[in-house]
Prior knowledge:
The protein is mainly alpha-helical. It is 84% helix and 0% strand. It contains six helices and no strands.
Amino acid sequence: LAFYYYFGVVKENISLGLTMAFGALVVSQSMLILLTREWEQVKSNRLLVLISGLTLLSLTLIIFIPFLRELFHLVSISVGLYGLMLLVSFAVMAVVSLVVMRRKNVV
């Protein structure tokens, strides 16, 4: 939601904020599915990895194909902004995963 605040409120571009927030939420949820499982579960469940990959592919198509982008009421973003969205989402989910794993080991 920081993307929405920054682009929507600070930069005064609500549509760009919504697009970035939508993308970040999709990426974060896909990563959450993988990061909340034991590594052996992820390795052994190819369908889980496939679905996560297809979700990220679908997001990419939705953002970069004009017809799909309009269908979801999103706006065009640059490849650089898309990369930033992916990088921030992966980084946040990595930190969340580390916190969760640390708590599991402590308790």
